[in-house]
Write a structure and sequence with these properties.
It is a single chain. By secondary structure, the protein is of the alpha+beta class. It has a domain at about 10-130: Roll (Bifunctional nuclease domain). It has helices spanning about 45-55, 65-75, 110-120, 130-145, 160-170, and strands spanning about 10-20, 25-30, 35-40, 80-90, 90-100, 105-110, 125-130, 175. Strands 1, 2, 3, 4, 5, 6, 7 and 8 form an 8-stranded mixed sheet that branches. α1 (about 45-55) runs parallel beside α3 (about 110-120) and α2 (about 65-75) crosses α3. The protein is globular.
């Protein structure tokens, strides 16, 4: 399995909310000390998948991410971690780190929303590459400066501003909470 993840930061799902401008769901990842926040815009179906797991709702039949967890379990594989590995052209990339029954390691390319949904179901750690946090922060700051006089889109909010916004929010402001 992979050694220490010195180029990554352990994060967890802080909650789900909606972008007030676009009405798109956002999953907010945070570090254990709540000093770093990473908002990732996701689709409605992916948000619903996360929400059912966060809320402890058990559907009558397995949904897609439940199916993936069940298939891995039946094959004797375990999810070791998920990693948000890259931010390229405003798109996040992720992978699911799986340990096979024989002890080998497999890295499966994934959308971050799917990786996070699998991590929630398998109680696996979520790691975000430090480089992703740096690039994300730089993009948000550049967008914030460019959008300062125009419309206030949450995609253009710096990491520090996100911290300020999230600190002012109460748990009731999140549709689904951890």
């Amino acid at each position: 399995m992979a050694g220490p993840k010195e180029d990554y930061i352990l994060m967890m799902v802080g909650g789900l909310t909606l972008d007030p401008t676009t009405k798109m769901p956002i999953v907010v990842l945070k570090d254990p000390d709540n000093k770093i926040n990473l908002p990732i815009w996701i689709g409605h179906l992916e948000a619903a998948s996360m929400a059912t797991e966060i809320e402890g709702i058990k559907p009558q039949r397995p949904m897609t991410h439940d199916l993936l967890r069940n298939v891995l379990g039946e094959l004797g594989a375990t999810v070791e971690a998920v990693e948000i590995t890259e931010l390229r052209d405003n798109t996040y990339f992720a992978r699911i780190e799986v340990k096979t029954r024989e002890g080998g390691a497999v890295h499966i390319d994934s959308r971050p929303s799917d990786a996070i949904s699998v991590a929630l179901r398998t109680k696996s750690p979520i790691y975000v590459a430090k480089a992703v946090l740096e690039v994300s922060s730089e993009l948000h700051e550049a967008a914030e400066q460019g959008a300062a006089a125009t419309d206030q889109n949450l995609a253009g909010v710096s990491r520090d501003k996100w911290s300020e916004i999230l600190e002012k929010m109460s748990p009731d402001d999140f549709k689904y909470k951890m």
